[in-house]
Amino acid sequence: MPEEKKVQLSEAFYTQDEAAVLKKFESSEEGLSSQEAKTRLDSYGENALDAGKKKSLAMKFLEQFKDFMIIVLLAAAVISAVFSHDVVDSIIILLVVVLNAIFGVIQEAKAEQAIEALKEMSSPNANVRRDGHVITVKSNELVPGDIVMLEAGDVVPADLRLLEAASLKIEEAALTGESVPVEKELGTLEGTPEDIGIGDRLNMAYSNSNVTYGRGLGVVVGTGMNTEVGKIAGMLANEQETETPLKQNLNQLGKMLTIAILVIAAVMFVVGLMNGRTWLDMLLTSISLAVAAIPEGLPAIVTIILALGTQKMAKKNAIVRKLPAVETLGSTDIICSDKTGTLTLNQMTVEALYTDNIVAPATAEVALDNMALKIMNFTNDTKIAQDGTLIGDPTETALVQFGLDHAFNVTEKVAAEPRVAEIPFDSDRKLMTTVHQLTTGKYLVSVKGAPDELLKRCNQQLLNNEAVSLDDAGRKDILTNNTKMAKQALRVLGMAYKLVDAVPAEMDSASVEKDLIFAGLVGMIDPERKEAAEAVKVAKEAGIRPIMITGDHRDTAEAIAARLGIIKEGDDDAVITGAELNELSDEAFAKVVGNYSVYARVSPEHKVRIVKAWQQEGKVVAMTGDGVNDAPALKAADIGIGMGITGTEVSKGASDMVLADDNFSTIIVAVEEGRKVFSNIQKTIQYLLSANLGEVLTLFIATMLAWDTLLPVHLLWINLVTDTFPAIALGVEPAERDVMSHKPRGKKSNFFSGGVLSSVIYQGITQGALTLIVYKMAIEFPAHTAANMPELTSKALVDLQHGDALTMAFATLGLIQLFHAFNVKSIYQSIFKVGFFRNKSFNWAILVSFLLLAATILVPGFNDLFSVTSLDGYQWAIVGGTSFMIIPIVEIVKFIQRSAGKGKE
């Protein structure tokens, strides 16, 4: 087809008749010529998806340095190296930053594989008519106008407008979320294109869907990126990654620290100059303060905490692809969940059987000679593999499985009473009939299908194994029970039969499917997961709102949602369809988004719109799903959760986290772990910043008072030793008992929420004050035994006393932080309730940190390196006693806060 005649492949061909579509593509049912197909291939391009741009490894590495905190740390390293000539500090900072970047690249190494996975899903071959003959070509060689033949088991190779459909059923769950295969029909659909969703386009077959039954013929109307699955690929490629709350909080923290550091350093620099100190001396002092203020290990520590959380979640079947997803789960307000395969089993299952005017649950005992049981298994094309797997239409396999569950061995029964004739199912009469030769010599005409159509052909019904006349009361009872089951979102089929002396001469509906005996009804559904209802309940108790988003019909979605507890039974106002959603503008939808908990008959665009509407309300949104249709919403959500077993590679590739067991309740376990991780990061930040604030105040106030308290090497050692190990250990603190009783913190919260900021301030001030008190006491009341040695000169004595004071201040600041680490196990709860020694890693961290701190004073040779002196028992008692005071002081403040109602929100 010449370039100027190219058809717009985005047209709504389902609203046009077959002849018009063929004419538009200048094609016929005999197909294109090979030469025309080649010309069109050059014009339209291959029937394949765009690969998308890939980032190089170097680019991925460089992107790790965009974080604001990382930039601050790099600046500190440069300043430290250039002005203070403290290369050790600079090397340590740079090492932390580089290791953090490498770790980030490793976690992101799997990158975005969604589009590649979409390509892999493509059917490798297709049967087409070319030059009047049926030939097999590679699916990427298909062009618009090609005539494609479909049979059961085929994967649809491109978007097709159907020209023929003989009992054609296509499973489109990956696109629509609907678990039951769609019965395809010919004809032109009425209505505006926007109101006809993918699941309702019965005259179309879409790329990458599966033919489960029958056969068909269609003309290609969309290839490559112009298919529905191609549109999804395009949405994935254009969808921007959502910045996680963790990254937002770390950036916010970095900016706050930078401003605070610059202000304090500037003030201290000016005051120092006013006190007569040189500008170089004050510059070095200001840099020392910057080193003390910046928690250079924070990004690495946060990464380690997240990584440890990832390992724990993996053991609980939640595989994290991107580290920040661990923390993001903990802040989730909304969980938008796909129904099929996530909240349900994606497996049709018999739920009720109506015989003898009684509806019985599927678990009730059924007699082996029950005629309804026999019909549902005999009039059935399901194949049983050697390993016992059932192969066929999901509805029919559900019926066979029901028989197997009730000891009905269909293989043996059919072998004994074989099928000798049949009338296949078709969508016009909605019935299927098989004829079986019985051991008695008679023939059984077995019929199953739509109850209303079946009843038209029945004049008797089976009651207590006897055929009786089917009167109006009997018909009414059957139809009433059919309606009841349908309102429960059950897919209902009727069974009927008759006995004849010979195989009917004419196997057509008019002569065979009449004068039947009604045997019963069977109701099926894709059932909810047993654990899903409990998971929904726990989610609600945790303040998380579950939202069901599905391609299924409204009644089915409403019934499943009510059974799960997402909505109350009969709460029709909480359900909205995709067509109704189309009538709302983004502004109008934003105002009413909170009214709806169930979305039915939706498209991929709807799912993204729903996610973004909640995000505009300031909510942190998690989206779960397993199909291709879920991928754009998974990527748009704050955290996308894919299904590991039933999920497509597309959905897993677009997800931040994958559930290895496809268990909805695993999400709630992951949420608890996420909340624990955030809480532990808060504890770490509270510990580090209160400690650093204590260091800053000690140095700042001492400078203001012209005291010489701490050297840069002291601050560096404290930051590396007494900060790092306990901070990491706090990251693996067990979850507090009430972690799932609080409401989600949402997007508006940050690391300083929930009392952390006030705790950092008063605890930092307390640490600084206690350190300065010890220093002043050591100067005013020297206690070293060497002070009484007469041979010491006055200057030597002063230097010794100052050395003792400096050492005691150094030891106090280090020890006070180790004691304070016990305080931050909980913001408001008493350490006696939380438990001093529950966390073994924490206990070891405190012990190792103490030994490393003490070694600088007690191990010979370290004194000169750290410019400290040896302390006697009395001095150590002052240091230890004063440092321990941080625990009772914080306990008293916590008691007052709890009395005021803090910690209960």
Concise structural overview:
The protein has 905 residues and is an alpha+beta fold.
Please give a structural write-up.
The protein folds into four domains: about 1-240, Calcium-transporting ATPase, cytoplasmic transduction domain A; about 265-310 and about 670-735 and about 750-900, Up-down Bundle (Calcium-transporting ATPase, transmembrane domain); about 320-345 and about 530-660, Rossmann fold (3-Layer(aba) Sandwich), CATH 3.40.50.1000; about 350-525, Calcium-transporting ATPase, cytoplasmic domain N (3-Layer(aba) Sandwich), CATH 3.40.1110. Mean pLDDT is about 80; it is low at about 110-125. It starts with 17 loop residues before the first helix and ends in a 6-residue tail after the last helix. With about 900 residues, it is α+β, with helices and mostly antiparallel strands. Strands 10, 11, 14, 15, 16, 17, 18, 19 and 20 form a nine-stranded mixed sheet that branches. Strands 8-26-25-24-9-21-23-22 form an eight-stranded mixed sheet, sandwiched between helices. It contains 35 helices and 26 strands. Its EC number is 7.2.2.10. It is an enzyme of class 7 (translocase). It is found in: Cell membrane. It is a multi-pass membrane protein.
